[in-house]
Here is the input.
Amino acid sequence: MRYLPLSGADRAIMLERIGVSAVDALFADAPPECLRDQAPDLPRRKGEMAVERELGRLAARNVSAGSVPFFLGAGAYRHHVPATVDHLIQRSEFLTSYTPYQPEIAQGTLQYLFEFQTQAAALTGMEVANASMYDGSTACAEAVLMAQRITRRKRAVLSGGLHPHYAEVTRTVCGFAGDSISSLPPDVAASEDIISQIGPDTSCVVVQSPDVFGNLRDLAPIAEAARRAGALLVAVVTEAVSFGLLTSPGAQGADIVVAEGQSIGNALNFGGPYVGLFAARSKFVRQMPGRLCGETVDADGRRGFVLTLSAREQHIRRDKATSNICTNSGLCCLAFTIHMTLLGGHGLRQLARINHANAVALADRLAALPGVTVLNHSFFNEFTVRLAGRDAADVVERLAARGVLGGVPVSRLLPGAGLDDLLLVASTEVNTDEDRTAFVDALAAVLGEIAAC
Amino acid sequence: MLNRQGRPTITGDAAPVAASAAEHRTFTGNRALQQIEPLLFEIGSTERCGVDLDEPAPFTARLGALEAAAPVDLPALSEPETMRHFVRLSQKNYGIDTGMFPLGSCTMKHNPRLNERMARLPGFADVHPLQPVATVQGALAVMDQLAHWLLTLTGMPAVALSPKAGAHGELLGLMAIKAAIAARGEGETRNVVLVPESAHGTNPATAALLGFRVKSVPARDDGAVHLDDVVGLLGPDVAAIMLTNPNTCGLFEPQIVEIAAALHAAGGYFYCDGANFNAIVGKVRPGDLGVDAMHINLHKTFSTPHGGGGPGAGPVVLSERLAPFAPVPFVRKGADGQLSLVEQAGEGEAAQAFGRLTAFHGQMGMYVRALSFMLSHGGDGLRQASEDAVLSANYVRASLADLLTAPFGDRPCMHEALFDDAWLKDTGLTTLDIAKALIDEGFHPMTVYFPLVVHGAMLIEPTESESKVSLDLFIAAMRDLAMAAKRGDAGRFTGAPRHAPLRRLDETRAARQPVLRWTRPQPVA
Ligand SMILES: Cc1ncc(COP(=O)(O)O)c(C=O)c1O
Here is the structure.
């Protein structure tokens, strides 16, 4: 087996040193009736070529986003990732290292985490950010738990513009943890009155902007109302490129900001691995979940970095920890950090402008089709269209059959909500004018094909 | 001295510079391949960009009043500067590819690059989680096949794939248990989870997060959890035990089957922390031990890389009793062989699903890598790998037993060898000193001070990836250190590491005056 360096002769010498005649003697504590005398009933070992063939066949059964005009978003976005990013994250010293518990030989990881925290804090407009969570959705649930610890209140209010998966993860985790979660109904028009839901028992309000339907939300009045009621505003962002062009949640008064960082540096990966950004006001730092990297000096006085404020974490505080998270999204953070290094604030703004311009161009062209209405009053790179009387899921299937991946039907996220004629459409810098034409033509054909029901 | 930004790289008021370093000081502060690398913000600027972006055709913004007035204040680097910055940072890191990384409980084994190549196939990497299922049949097949391998290896009937790491899997398992207990109408009364003192911190943290009361099962002199101790704690209030097997002392729990039976008889569930599964793959099936739920850290046992702290994946195998409560989403195989996703809790097959733990479907990138690892090994190779991991750990144990002290005597271990610090008595040295001296010898230290139940613990997990030459060198280095320690050669330890990019770091200072981000230096007035 190519990955196993020990030879038969090595094994014999090692057994002798240990003083046993066979390796099974080392398994003596296992119940004898449970110790298996044969390899499991699974295929035998394979060479590289055979594995490549087998997995290559499976990969070929998927339609990859880059092979067709592609317009899906809803919390996962296709952006161009510079070649530098993927090369650097495969450096052995990054890829094959562990959590930086021995800082003298992990300064590479620690310094990029410090840089990541700086970028995440600047983008969200907050004072501090941690060294990442699993993804945006789990970060959202953690933010609600944190708000509960800070306010000692137990009712969180979720906006109807929050990504339904995020809402469901939050309801699940926080529900088990004993919080009560009030979810507002799906809010396609961004017209809900969330402020009236804030009461003396409210720990936080959770508002996403751009929301799941693409609308941009003015967080400032919500932040102000929350502050007056002693509650926190948790702002959620699922498209990190939007930070480049929009007033930051921090500048609008958010207390905690969580975001999905996949858009910057990371591929779609069918949903994971992704990287959750988690940022807050510094007065809350001791209530934050996850790892924090901080600056210090070594014995010679040279600047260095270490994991710090660990008294919040499970390995020190056990059942009193602020979270149970241990392994987070290290390498995805690195990808994010490298891509952001290449972009800088100016580059990100330009990238965001291109995204917005492409989305505006697409929205205008789609709106010109009969039976298609763009519902948004504002948007960044994603918006909602109504396909009058049509089942959007059916439309998407038919578009796929014509070689266009044309968005996410709202019913995929909110089945049974009576929103079956709504389609979420995203457009990023990867889309060309030809892509838009192919989409518009295919949609026109499909709409003609199915009679309105 | 000051670097280009005027920040001190070596401060005068801190501990004096080691004599040798002072004597051979360079003008730049660099030491050949070891380069001082400033923060990217200190060398970057907002005038530069490492990406060429065109000006879009004229458009009318639809951003309402929320357009930011100015770009975010973050400097950039050009592409060559970016490359050099991160390559230099990487050179300050120790990875498995650098050398032996016997970090107990973490299973730092070889990361085959085939797995990286497979995960980057556009058919896996460039696929959106919400594409029509007809366009992702290959991705669902990967999940289905991975599930088949995990179920066969564990002897369990069901698996939930979506958790993003071991601790996330612990959440899933305990949530399923809580849901099952609630379904039995005992939600109000069964609220205690038993956790041995030797457990990893995530276990009590997970139980507490879900509102369980954590009761500790005491540590015993032999490193095992005793049936009597568990039975003494059982009652109508006990929801579950969280037991690690092999445990964090590197031992197969001798009474595990009896403990599981006692727990079941008392109406509780057995959550097994499967972080140490690498010891028993192909040898023992957790399903045969009475396990109800167990997470498997794919980034440990199945080699999806640790990546400096993630991303991981923590699928959870479940017993028949817990399977109905597994969260969405999961893959369903139709009669026609077509695969689909069940994404809504509360209806159909997911009628009892407790909810959802993450957006989308979990860690596809990790599933592909793990499956690639499994296919490469085959069932036979996985079994061999576990045997080699156990053999190597015992070889290290036996080779150091005369110089170091093992808390549980001479008994064999599983895939990791545990020593305590009794052998350091009277030397004035600590476990940490040994770890730092190992850095100078070119090794990554073992896990230190974990498990908490062993004084000054040193937990050594060589994994199956080390050659005998490499094990022998490690053993020789450890023996030499042990003899130096006993000789009273304290200087070799207390100043260590001397050859790492940095010397020991001041963690107290980091915590006392936290600096958690770079801030732009204020112009001097
Ligand atoms: C015994 C044990 N349990 C649980 C965990 C947590 O796993 P993860 O880091 O994947 O969340 C670890 C990993 O560090 C571990 O060693």
Remarks:
- Chain B has two domains: 116-371, 380-510.
- The pocket of pyridoxal-5'-phosphate is lined by residues A 326-327; B 105, 165-167, 200, 202, 244, 248, 273, 275, 297, 312, 314 (CB under 6 Å).
- Chain B touches chain A through 218 residues (CB under 8 Å).
